[in-house]
Amino acid sequence: MTIQPFKSIVKNYGVLFLDSYGVLKNFNGLIPGAIETIQYIIESGREFFVLTNDASHSPQLLAEKLHNIGLKSICTGHIISSGMMAREYLGNKIKGGTVVYLGTEDAAHYIEEAGLETISISDLKINDIDHVSAIVFLDDEGFDWNNDISKAVNLLKRRNIPAIVANSDLTYPVSKNKVAVAIGGIAEIVEKIVQKKFIHFGKPDGSMFMYAYELLSEKGQFSKSEILMVGDTLYTDIIGGNKFGVDTALVLTGNTRKERAEVLIRSYGIIPNYICESVGV
Asked: What is the C-alpha separation between 103 and 121, in angstroms, rounded?
């Protein structure tokens, strides 16, 4: 396994697609050198977008969180979240009724921006569900895991409605050796119990990459060969970039630890073009 300096790779590309958690920040906070790398990307005239499976906050709040740790050059226009993809679907496909959500009130704004009424799974009365037109899995916080996951199961058994997963991540790291269950993991459990096919958004789904590519086309003409996708997770960031047809760089500051990287690459069969310690090296 060859590890290359990230800064030696960046110069070969005109566009960077960057994951957020695990690439720019992690459980320790800001990745050392990330500020300087973003500054270099901007000052050298390169384009970049942050592609995140975080549907817990609006792009404005996601940008603000990055500002708070020092990444002040990243603005709302750089953020492309899986919640935005779910919002597009809801706006096009759900024409009325009430949308039930699992997550925080901040996350529910994605549904409300689509012009739809919302109700938290915690506030839903299971015997009053005729008005429910969809259920959306947004975030692993904001509801009672003991009661509300079971309520979601019963809702889906009683009502034939779309179930949308706005963040397909199964887990996320909370320390070097520990992970927490993400909303995608909860959704996968519910999906298996009710034996229905859910609609998943976020990497590795191609819609986020296509959305970024369409935004990029407004800035100029770029081929996929000019784009580098940078991520910390093989089965979301790297396979998503590979399928979209862009080069990929795996960094070892998030889900994929250095000591397990080679084994995981071989076992998954997901091969990045590059492996780097971090974006700051």
From this structure: 8
